[in-house]
Each structure stands twice: as C-alpha cells, then as structure tokens.
Amino acid sequence: MKKNYSDIEKILYDSAKKTVDGTEYKNVVYTEKVKLKEKKERDTTVAHSILQVAGVFLAAIVIGGFAFATMYVKDFMPPFQKTGTDTQDVTVTETKEAEKQPEKTNYEYKFEGLHAIEFSQDEFVSTKEKLPIEGDYVNVRKLQNKAADDFLFNVYIYDKEVRVTNYNKVKKTWLCLTDKNGGLVAEIEPETLYAYYGSLIYAESSPDGAPAVLLSVRYENYAKIAVLLHDCKTNKTKRIYDINASALEFKGNEVFSNGITLKANAEEGKIRLLLSARRYTNGIVNFAVEAADEISGQDPDITREWFKEYFTKDGGLNDRVYRVKTLVKGDDGYGFVDIDSEPLPSGTTKMLYKAPEFSAGRKFIAVTSGGETYYPDPLGRRTGLCDDGSLQEDVYGTGLNYLRIDYNDDFDIENNVYGKDYRIINIKVYKTTEIADRSPAYWVPEPKESSYREYGTVEELKANLKAADDDVYVVSFIVSWDDGVLKAPGDVTYRFTYYMYVSKK
Amino acid sequence: MTKQEFVSSVSANEKLLYIAAYSVVRNTEDAKDAVAAAIAKAWEKLDRLRDEDRFDGWILKITYNEAKKMLRHRDGQVSLDDVKEPSCDDGLSDMRFFDLLSSAKLDEKSRRIMILRFFYGCELPETAKMMGMPLSSVKTKYYRALEKIKKLPGIR
Predict the structure, then answer these.
(1) pLDDT tens sequence across A43-98
(2) CA distances from B140 to A167, A314, B146 (A)
(3) How much is the pLDDT for A462?
(4) Is residue A259 assigned to a domain?
(5) What CATH number is given to the structural domain containing B73?
(6) Domain range for residue B51?
C-alpha cells in the first residue's frame, strides 16, 4: 500500500516557509561584489542536443556484444538518425588525484588526432602470429574493428603469465595495439586492464602531449566500470573515470552488464561517454540502455540529456529470441522501432532492427492555434506485466515541460503519428486562477480538485475552451497508441502525458 | 545566457542560495562568502551549462560545493554527513527544516532534492530535470528521505 507522507510534506513546507519568511536578507547582489568578468557574448543557442539514436545503439551493441558475444546488429538505420555530430564536451576527473585532493577541480581532457574504434567481434589468431611483445602468450584474439578501413591499428587481447609472488605465476589477460606494420603502440597491463569492454580510442596527442589510448573496462565482478588512459610514451595506464553500477540507479533486483562506450569527436578533440546497463527484474530480462553525454566528478552526476529505453525480452532465457517494440527519440521527435531476432542454425542469434513504423521526424501530437503549430514534449509512462502478475512502471521523458499556447478559435490537438490512432485516456483542464496557494511565488501551484474539468474527446475540450472565460488554462492530455491490454508477462503499454498552458487572455 | 540574464537569474535565487549555504556552514559570513564564490564560479563555468532550464539546480549544487569547501577550510576535512546539529548564530531564525534533514542523515543529493522541492517549489519531474537525474532516482531518494524524517522522534 502506498504510504501517505502528506503530513510530513506539510511539516517540511511549513518549516521551509518559516525559514524563508524569517530570514532577514537583503539581496547583496553578489553579482556586483564578485565582479563578473566580461566575456564574449555567449552563444545562447548552445547545443541542446539529444543523444542520437546512433549512440544508443552503439551502447546496445556493447551490451549485446558483451553478454551475447555472437549477436550482431544488422539493417538498422532509422531515417532520423544523424551521425557524426558529437560536439559535446566531456569533463572527467582524475579519480586517484581526487581521492587525495578533494578540492581538485575537474579538468577537461582535450585530445588531437582521435581515432575511435568499436569492435563487432573478435577472432582467434594463429599462434604462429608474432606480436611485438615480450614473454609467452596464448589465446591470442584479434578484435575486429567495425570501421576497419579507417583504423590505423590492430588490437589484440591475449593471456600472458604474470609473476604474482616469487614462486607463482598466473595467466592474466592483456591487450596491445600494433600499427599496421606490426610495431608496438601500447601494451596494457592486467592490473589496470581488468576486463576489456569493447570500445577504445587512440589519441595522437593527449593533454600530456604524448599519444594515448583510452578504453572502457569493467572490474570488481562487473560492479564497476572505468575509463583508462594509457600513455604510450611512458607505457603507464591510469584510471581517469569510474562509476559504480548502482550509480545508474535502475529499479530492479539485479543490474549487470554495465558499460561505458567512448565516442570521439576528432574535430573538437573531445570524448563523450555513453553509459549502458542491463537488468533482470522479476523474471523478465529488461534490456535497458541509458546514455549520458556529460559525466563529471567522482559522484557521477549526469548533467545532460538522457536517453532511456527498455527492451523487454519475450521468451525464455536460453532461446535468445527477442521481440521488442521500443520507443526511440531522435533529434526531431519520436518513433517506434521493432527489434526482432531469429535463431541461426549455428546456435547464434541474429538481431534485426526494423525501420520505425512511422517517421520519428514527426512529433506525436501537434497542437495548432492561430496558425501556429506547437509540438509539446511528452512525459512517458511505460507499464510492464511481470511474471508474478505485478505491474512494473517506469516514467521517462522531459517531464513537466509546460508549453505555452496562445488560444485561438482554430485551436486543435492533432494526432501526428502516421497510420496509428491514439486512444484518449484522459483530458483534464483547470483555470490557473483556481489554483490554490499561489503565493509566495515559489510554492508549487496545487490545483483544487474541484477545479478540474475532465473530457473524453478533443472535441469536448475544444468546445469548452471556446466557451470558456478569459484565463490561462492548464491542460493535461493523456493518450496512448497501444490497446492498453497486458496479457502475458513481458507485455508493455505506453502512455504519454502532455502538459500545456493555453492562454485565452 | 547574457550577463544581464545571469545577474537576473542569480538575484532571483540569492536568498535561497544563501539559506542553502547557511545550512552547511551555519555561519552568516561564511554563507555569504560561499554564495559569492558560487556565483563567481557559476559565471566562470556558465558555458558548461547547456540547458538553461537547469540553472537553478546547477547553481544550487555549486553553492553546496562552495559551502562544503568553506567548511573544510574552516574545520578541516568535514563531510556533509558529519555536519553536527546547529549552533545557530543570528543568521536564520528558523532552522527546523535543515535540522530535520541533518537528523535524518540525508546524503547531499537528497538534501538538494528536498531544497528544490520545498524551497524552490519544484515538482519531482522538474527536480529530476534540474538535478540531471532520472525521475525514478529522484522519487526513490525523495520518498526515502520522507520516510527517514517520518521516523524521527518527535516529528509531529
């Protein structure tokens, strides 16, 4: 049963209000006191970028590639996908330094000559193939770069003996890069390698001036993931960023296969991080991909746009057949993507990504008024049926992003999803002048329940707004494009809520 | 964001930033200094803020960090969790809100969530946006915090 905290909230509201009211504070206008340095006028259209679907699928590939090494991705290129626009800065913290010097500020890594590599698979190499490294090594595998033509190096992973005491030796996994002529570029030791994860960037020049290799790894039984920076000049490796799996804060019983994918922007000399994770909850394998394009500090704060999607596996754990319909967000809007798979005779699974059912260049709904068209952002709610019959709910999206719309008689809300009708679940309207407790200005406007008007159709809403008094109205519009039926475990439904201020003044 | 817009946004927030800083340092002058340092830093780092809708949450976080830094300078290495019960000077007349957060031993993120919720009046989705956190995480922290506060002796 959901607990009621309204009494505690009231105590907190009251005490916060007392604090504010009781604080004698004349604005000191610190902005003058601190003498803000004049800067060049900032670009006010700074990228408000949305993580590209390409990035997400890279993360998905990392997950898939890691957990199911034989899977591969094929035939997916949604029409709204854009590539090569990674223009985000990323700030990372020198972890060990930060532990010793808590006040050390983050610093930005800037590189020159970036070459990013994502690997689709690895293959065993003949034991006769010689690597330019010292000592005996076995189980040599060569990682296959997905963009082999663009990459200047070969990457090998192998087992090599390491002396752990005076008498004992153990085999540990190493990694090395060679140039096309077989010359050694970098050999990365197991102490820092942990387990190699699948994305790597070579920088011709790092902030220290030397060539460097950056790679993402996992360690502590997959509980942590890290980014390593290997200095090719000194042949030393250091951890520059790490994160606990739990930092992703998924709900559920178990979170595993977490990873960081590195993405390089050669033009900007910057590196972006994508976070990914997978979870297993209540008997259903939910594939979750979450990504962030800026992460800073030891206490990972994801301060930028998020992309989140959930894949729900249909079928048993071992048959490796997946049927997924998932919502993806592109630069211009949303779209559904069907993801399917088919088992191959070899026992592996081919993942098929089908084109979206409709162009995600469109927004889900369009609101028109006065010749203007508005595209409100939705708050999404995904409900899944678990094996035990319980429901699991996830909320995602841009949240309470109230769009302001000037009302005109041609006001309309249109379904903007091609070929699919929406189902109206609820429309609520209330006057902002009927919102209780609007002062002081920073309190949450809580509408009185009695002020709601509810409608079942857009036509009712339009008729009511047309006849309504001059005021500013809050409209919440809840719709779905599925039938809302949850029959079997793994079934999911989506609801989308749109909020808008409609001004008749 | 232009300088004028920055000044305007900061001015609107200054009192709340001061209260937040005070809740950490428990001293009027240090709180003012922390706010001043935070504003200077925010201006310096402004081009790292790409979503201006998150300005309030972002500058609140900077203020918290500056206040903690001030505390470390003053008292040596002290984590926010170690902040003891207040020895209120004449800075704030009513510290019950922060006393409750301290007594409930909330972590820093939870404290910021509570401040955004109860001082800035943000709904949880808005708070999540400002914190740059998933809504589910904010909800979890928020309700855990309420539960902890509810269990405090003499809360009612």
Answers:
(1) 322 222 222 222 222 222 222 222 222 121 211 111 111 222 222 222 222 222 22
(2) 51, 28, 10
(3) 92
(4) no
(5) 1.20.140
(6) 3-150
Q: Searching chain A, which residue's CA lies closest to the CA of residue B137?
A: A249
A467 interfacial to chain B (CB closer than 8 Å): no
B151–chain A Cβ distance below 8 A for any pair: no
Q: How many Å apart are CA A64 and CA A313, to the nearest integer? A: 13
- Tell me the HSE value of A21 on the side-chain side, using a 13 A CA sphere: 11
Written as six digits, the tokens of A301 are 């704060």
What is the interface pTM, i.e. ipTM, of the complex?
0.80
Residue in A12, A20, A27 nearest the CB of B14: A27
Of B40, B97, B135, which is closest to A15 when you measure between CB atoms?
A: B97
Two structure tokens written together for B147 = 């539960």
Residue to mutate among A1, A17, A36, with most B CBs inside 10 A, is A36
Nearest alpha carbon to residue A354 among A119, A120, A84, A73: A73
- Tens-digit pLDDT profile for residues A441-474: 333 344 555 567 788 899 999 999 999 888 888 8
Q: Are A500 and A403 in contact (CB under 8 A)?
A: yes
Residue B156 lies in a domain: no
> With an 8 Å Cβ cutoff, are A303 and B58 in contact?
yes
Does residue A305 sit at the B interface (CB-CB below 8 Å)? yes
Alpha helices in chain B (DSSP H): 3-25, 28-44, 55-75, 96-103, 108-118, 124-131, 135-150
User: Is A425 a domain residue?
Assistant: yes
Q: Which DSSP letter does residue A322 get?
A: -
Chain B residues closer than 8 Å to A249 by CB: 133-134, 136-137, 140
Number of domains in chain A: 1
